[in-house]
């Protein structure tokens, strides 16, 4: 039920913001919702929804399918953290696909190579990467981002992560577009 709750929540928010949203019902591997702007712009977005059950420390598994480059300038993720109180709105984070790929890689690499952890203690593969809610805080309720191509979206990851891009322990994933095209604008986010 968790997956469905998140998908329907995202559809309701999109509809209330003037988007015609339709669930793909598992018909597309990378897209849960297709939405078209109901105004004259006819802008379309492809949305992958990841939903976390109610927990004190929400997190989402970002496996290998999550960590793929965007195929268009309109691929988004919405991370939904359900509230434990029935009827209360969940938290939601609207994130461009390439930002998700970078964040999942960096959070996992930092965890794998954390100083002071004995070698061999942490050996979980990249396919089991997890991203925690504080990572997405800069994208909380950022529904307005959907109005623009993902390539124009500033990075809203925690500011400390900017140094991780150049850290040889962490860096960016191999083949990530920011390696060749350079980093987008990095907006400071309070941590």
3D structure, described in words:
The longest helix has 16 residues, at 97-112. The protein has one domain (2-181): Trna Endonuclease, Chain: A, domain 1 (3-Layer(aba) Sandwich), CATH 3.40.1350. It has 191 residues and is an alpha+beta fold. It has a five-stranded mixed sheet. Strands 4-7 form a two-stranded antiparallel sheet. It has five helices and seven strands. 23% of the residues lie in helices and 24% in strands. A hairpin with a 6-residue loop joins strand 2 (31-37) and strand 3 (44-52).
Radius of gyration: 17 Å
Low-pLDDT residue spans = none
Number of domains: 1
Helix fraction bin = 10-25%
Major sheet characteristics? 5 strands, mixed
Mean pLDDT: 92
Please state the second-level CATH architecture: 3-Layer(aba) Sandwich
Helix run count: 5
Query: Which structural class best describes the helix and strand composition?
Result: alpha+beta
Shape: globular
Concise overview:
With 191 residues, the protein is of the alpha+beta class.
Summary tags:
single chain; 191 residues; alpha+beta; Trna Endonuclease, Chain: A, domain 1; two-stranded antiparallel sheet; 5 helices; 7 strands
Layout of strands and helices, then pairs:
Blueprint: H1 2-16, E1 19-28, E2 31-37, E3 44-52, E4 59-61, E5 75-81, E6 91-96, H2 97-112, E7 130-132, H3 133-136, H4 161-164, H5 177-181
Parallel strand pairs: 3-5
Antiparallel strand pairs: 1-2, 2-3, 4-7, 5-6
């Amino acid at each position: 039920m968790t997956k469905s709750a998140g998908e329907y929540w995202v559809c309701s928010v999109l509809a209330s913001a003037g988007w015609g949203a339709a669930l793909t019902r598992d018909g597309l591997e990378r897209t849960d919702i297709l939405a078209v702007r109901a105004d004259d712009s006819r802008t379309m977005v492809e949305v992958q929804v990841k939903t976390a059950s109610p927990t004190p420390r929400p997190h989402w598994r970002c496996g290998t399918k999550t960590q793929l480059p965007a195929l268009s300038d309109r691929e988004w993720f919405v991370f939904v953290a359900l509230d434990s109180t029935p009827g209360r709105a969940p938290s939601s984070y609207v994130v461009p696909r390439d930002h998700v790929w970078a964040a999942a890689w960096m959070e996992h690499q930092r965890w794998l190579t954390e100083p002071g952890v004995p070698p061999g203690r942490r050996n979980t593969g990249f396919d089991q990467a997890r991203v925690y809610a504080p990572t997405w805080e800069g994208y909380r309720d950022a529904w307005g981002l959907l109005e623009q191509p993902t390539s124009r979206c500033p990075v809203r990851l925690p500011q400390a992560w900017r140094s991780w891009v150049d850290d040889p322990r962490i860096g960016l994933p191999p083949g990530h577009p920011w390696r060749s095209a350079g980093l987008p604008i990095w907006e400071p986010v309070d941590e």
